[in-house]
């Protein structure tokens, strides 16, 4: 008699509940039940309210600030491990602390490496994430990492816009590889912004490498935090003769005065995914769902089939 593979159990961390519900619906499953106990000092304890023994478990949660989001994921992984789950996959649409991927000055931590070790120690046997800040973070893990690209979401949207005279732009030198990958698919030119930082999140000078005169420009980045770089780049390109400037950023952190900067800028629109729950609404921000992408990859992982078709870049 052939062996029937049992369906996986899908659970959500509290910070990603809405996205997890959409992923579970796209997968064709129900979210598992989890309860949280909280102490008066802020300590919390998750508890699975159903058996996971021998099951494949997917735990969905982005680890954006605050650090409680990371701690919640770690506790959920540990609970699944101690409940004898067979496979435990951390589904992290946004992998937090990824900007600390190297020592860029003396006596600082490599936070992304530390988070990778914590996830594995907690019990993760696989990681599914999207648009890491640096590709080499995959090498911090000893477990398999499925690194998805939001280009599979953004490129169809850009094609639907039907923009002529399109130019892809990188807001900094570090994102030039990502911009080139988009331009190759869209058969467009590439321009790059060169910026100098006074300190974190503060730009002292920005210059443009390339010509944007008469072009519809699409800025490409993995995340938007304070929106200082994006809005400064958009304003600079409009000054240099661009017809319009829009930006696509996978992870909408949007801290500080980001919303105000976007509203006051010359950006036509900012296109993001829902890897991080939006803090508020803005007419300039277009949110595209990544639920179907993650649901499809989770299904392929569970049934041991290829996910290479999910990579356009």
From TrEMBL:
User: EC?
Assistant: 2.7.6.1
Pfam families in the cross-refs: Pribosyl_synth, Pribosyltran_N
Q: Which UniProt keywords apply?
A: ATP-binding, Kinase, Magnesium, Metal-binding, Nucleotide biosynthesis, Nucleotide-binding, Transferase
Q: Which GO terms describe its molecular function?
A: ribose phosphate diphosphokinase activity
Q: What class of enzyme is it?
A: transferase
Lineage: superkingdom: Bacteria
InterPro entries assigned to the protein according to its UniProt record, in alphabetical order: PRib_PP_synth_CS, Pribosyltran_N, PRTase-like, PRTase_dom, Rib-P_diPkinase
Every copy of the Ribose-phosphate pyrophosphokinase N-terminal domain together lies at: 9-123
List, alphabetically, the Gene3D superfamilies matched. 3.40.50.2020
Presence of the UniProt keyword ATP-binding in the record: yes
PROSITE patterns according to UniProt = PRPP_SYNTHASE
Protein known as:
ribose-phosphate diphosphokinase
């Amino acid at each position: 008699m052939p062996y029937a593979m049992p369906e996986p159990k899908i659970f959500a961390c509290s910070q990603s509940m809405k996205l997890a519900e959409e992923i579970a619906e796209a997968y064709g499953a129900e979210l598992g039940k989890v309860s949280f106990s909280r102490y008066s000092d802020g300590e919390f304890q998750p508890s699975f309210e159903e058996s996971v023994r021998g099951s494949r478990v997917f735990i969905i949660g982005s680890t954006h600030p605050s650090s409680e989001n990371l701690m919640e994921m770690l506790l959920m992984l540990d609970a699944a491990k101690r409940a004898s789950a067979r496979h435990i996959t951390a589904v992290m649409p946004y992998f937090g602390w990824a900007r600390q991927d190297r020592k860029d000055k003396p006596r600082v931590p490599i936070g992304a490496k530390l988070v990778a070790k914590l996830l594995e120690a907690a019990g993760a046997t696989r990681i599914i994430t999207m648009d890491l800040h640096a590709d080499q973070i995959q090498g911090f893990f000893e477990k398999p990492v499925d690194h998805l690209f939001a280009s599979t979401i953004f490129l169809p949207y850009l094609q639907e816009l039907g923009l002529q005279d399109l130019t892809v732009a990188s807001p900094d030198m570090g994102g030039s590889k990502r911009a080139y990958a988009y331009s190759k698919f869209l058969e467009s030119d590439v321009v790059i912004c060169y910026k100098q930082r006074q300190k974190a999140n503060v730009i002292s000078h920005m210059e443009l490498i390339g010509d944007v005169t008469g072009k519809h420009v699409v800025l490409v980045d993995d995340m938007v935090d304070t929106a200082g770089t994006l809005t400064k780049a958009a304003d600079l390109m409009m000054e240099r003769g661009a017809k319009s400037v829009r930006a696509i950023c996978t992870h909408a952190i949007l801290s500080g005065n980001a919303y105000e900067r976007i509203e006051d800028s010359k950006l036509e629109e900012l296109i993001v995914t829902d890897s991080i729950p939006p803090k508020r609404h803005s007419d300039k921000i277009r949110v595209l769902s990544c639920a179907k992408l993650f649901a499809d990859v989770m299904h392929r992982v569970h049934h041991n089939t290829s996910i290479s078709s999910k990579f356009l870049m």
